[in-house]
Amino acid sequence: MSQRLLTLLLRLLARLPWPVLHWLGRTGGRLMYRLGGREVRNVRANLAIAYPDMPANERESLVRETLIESAITFVEMPRIWLSGEDLSARVDCNGLPETMRAMVKRGRGLILAMPHHGNWEMVSSGIDQSLRITGLYRPPRQAFLEPLMTQGRSIARIDMVPTSRAGIRALHQALQAGDVVAILPDQAPKAAGAAAMAAPFFGRDCATMVLLGRLAARHDAPVLFVWAQRQPDGRYRMAYFEADRAIADQDPLTAATALNAAIEPCVASAPAQYQWTYRRFYPVHPGQDNPYA
């Protein structure tokens, strides 16, 4: 599909009503499950690792539910990025803005850890946008998507910076000033200025970012895990908790282990809404099996 055609499709999706988008997502997820393919295999492999004791029929049902939820998230993205609408009416903030303000008042800044759970792009509609927020993002592989993505995030008054040395520097500066930074903590970094190490996640070592722990340790900044969980009516409710201080431990393995341990209860709140299509358990040790082979 050409870039021009795909851009046109995204802009068309951005104009569709929410119920239509959700119908498309459910239909697309069911079709993806029936056709099989890489995403289906990824989800099966990941769930077999995360839930080895789950009965096979239940796990297979979870595979199907995951693909449906992932498809809904995908078709929602263009409307979130491109419509320019105020999405706050679709989000139950659940006291999050007040919690953020209270934590920022401690004077050490605040790190928002936003796992790929629910719809992470909706989090910006449930946070306190009066605070200065700097968000870290990895530029998409398709370069033409980057301005579309950053357009939507800038509407939420989040200053987006890429995973580069300059971007990492901007995060440090924001925390030094007592402001807020936002990071997707369950994506292994690949750019200069950040690194990953092997740490357990659902019982298996996988590549885990160390940047978040380093930021928390250097600035003594509190870490708040936040996610927008999709509700049965298609709206969202913010969920959050403050991370254990082990996430800022000087030992990077201890910090990375604490980070992954904090993501697990986020996933447990609605397992089908986690991004299980991502190859999170790719081998990190010599001789470790490749579940995606």
Brief synopsis:
The protein is an alpha/beta fold. The chain has nine helices and nine strands. The chain has helices at residues 3-15, 18-35, 38-50, 56-82, 96-104, 146-155, 165-176, 211-219, 252-269; strands spanning 91-92, 110-113, 133-137, 158-162, 180-183, 196-201, 204-209, 223-230, 236-242.
Give an overview of the whole structure.
This protein has about 290 residues and is of the alpha/beta class. Helices cover about 45% and strands about 15% of the residues. The chain is built from nine helices and nine strands. The strands form two sheets. It has a seven-stranded mixed beta sheet with strand order 1-9-8-2-5-3-4. Strands 6-7 form a two-stranded antiparallel sheet. Helix 1 crosses helix 4, helix 2 (about 20-35) packs across helix 4 and helix 4 (about 55-80) crosses helix 6.
What are the SSEs and their pairings?
Blueprint: H1 3-15, H2 18-35, H3 38-50, H4 56-82, E1 91-92, H5 96-104, E2 110-113, E3 133-137, H6 146-155, E4 158-162, H7 165-176, E5 180-183, E6 196-201, E7 204-209, H8 211-219, E8 223-230, E9 236-242, H9 252-269
Parallel strand pairs: 1-9, 2-5, 2-8, 3-4, 3-5
Antiparallel strand pairs: 6-7, 8-9
